[in-house]
Amino acid sequence: MSFKTIGPRCLHLSALSQPGVSFHTCRAFASAASTTDPHRRTPTNLQERLANGPSFADFVSTPPEDIPQLRTAVVGPPGRRKEITRLPPWLKTPIPDNSNYKKIKADLRGLNLHTVCEEARCPNISDCWGGSEKTAATATIMLMGDTCTRGCRFCSVKTSRAPPPLDPHEPEHTAEALSRWGLGYVVLTSVDRDDLVDGGAAHFAETIKKIKLKAPTMLVEALTGDYAGNLDMVKLVAESGLDVYAHNVETVEELTPVVRDRRASFRQSLSVLKRAKEVKETLITKTSIMLGLGETEDQLWETLKVNNFKSFNAELRKVSVDVVTFGQYMQPTKRHMKVHEYVPPAVFETWRQRALDMGFLYCASGPLVRSSYKAGEAFIENVLKKRLRKSEMVVGMDMKLEGVSGIETKPEL
User: Fold this and answer.
1) Does the pLDDT value for residue 175 go beyond 60?
2) Considering 4, 25, 73, 148, which has the largest number of Cβ atoms within 10 A of its Cβ?
3) Cα dist. 353→78, 298, 349, 350, 360 in Å?
4) Is residue 256 within 8 Å of residue 266, measured between CB atoms?
């Protein structure tokens, strides 16, 4: 019988040619001999080291008491009970039930109008629609129907490739309802209508013009889509007479492909905000970012820098965002993205202060803050008052200069 040796293995080649005879290697004999090697480490030594080594608790740097603990509860009828996660206490809101809320809701149904407050299941609807006085209420009207052509993974608004046609009477009905409520500030938003040539920009602009005709003193904020990157449509809306142009980037650039519809992009959203400021320099631009989607602190820093260039230079401010808001993402249904993290209120306060330090005109930041949450109060108290103070300072300086120029000076000898 002949052999062929390959390293430590020996194959019985002649056995391969004999039927019914299997071949074998010499590997087993080498292994058996090696067990007598006194330098070989036995498996028991490693097992003992692992058993006597550090535990998982030794690697945890944060004390357990400092970590927010989520509560669970068992709900459902007998036989179908399941365990759910309770929301943190800072995300609890009251059930809407007051006269202002009922009045606004009745007017909306009577005029066949829609609000993002209802369609997006906003937790602040009782605060925004309610209040002790009618003028304290804030509503966000959603134009162009309740069906969107895009399907972002965080949004609960209905979607369709072919939504119903626009209501030609909607601009008039919207202006009539808002003038009837006597609000001082209103937010207009809309679904994305990629099925329309102009994305609905003309419809949006017409609504703003009619509101200004019926209520000239009412402040109007327009929260628009990106119009598929058509900046001419952005110009059309920016020149319609609105006071605040808002467009949400929603999240950091790295998470945009996962969170938003594939037709939206972070850079495209920035171009919308930049174009609105270029059309009208005095126009306040605004955006909103959700936290709790899995973003990192470094990604948020870069997002703010991109928006504001981290500069106080007046020339750069002309194309920068003036107002930014931070809010907690909350999963509207089981079909949408899961919440990665419930961000504590202290973290929101940290980002509010950071945004102000970077030069943003105003920042609203909190677990329940939304892009249009109490927009009237935020705008009036934190933006208009700042501008008023600045204008008073300018007037005061002009008066001082006039007084100085009127002083008679003696000629030098």
Assistant:
1) yes
2) 148
3) 49, 16, 6, 5, 10
4) yes
DSSP 119: H
C-alpha distances out from residue 290 to 205, 249, 255, 328, 330, Å: 27, 9, 11, 6, 9
**237 and 204 Cβ atoms separated by less than 8 Å:** yes
C-alpha 361/C-alpha 378 separation (Å) is 11
**DSSP secondary structure letters along 126-182:** HHHH--SSGGG---EEEES-SEES---TT--SEE-SSPPPP-TTHHHHHHHHHHHHT
CB 152 within 8 A of CB 264: yes
Q: Could you give the CA distance from residue 110 to residue 179 in angstroms, rounded to a whole number?
A: 15
User: Which region, left, alpha or beta, applies to residue 309 given φ > 0 means left and ψ of -120 to 50 means alpha?
Assistant: left
Cα 114 to chain centroid distance, Å, stands at 22
**Which residue type does 101 have?**
Y
- Say how far apart CA 98 and CA 96 lie, in whole Å: 7
Cα three-residue angle 211-213-215, rounded to 5 degrees: 65
34: helix, strand or coil: helix
In contact, 149 and 192? CB cutoff 8 Å: yes
- Give per-residue pLDDT as tens, 182-227: 777 888 999 999 999 999 999 999 999 999 999 988 889 999 999 9
Q: Are 104 and 349 in contact (CB under 8 A)?
A: no
> Kind of pairing, strands 140-143 and 147-148?
unpaired
91 token code pair: 């995300």
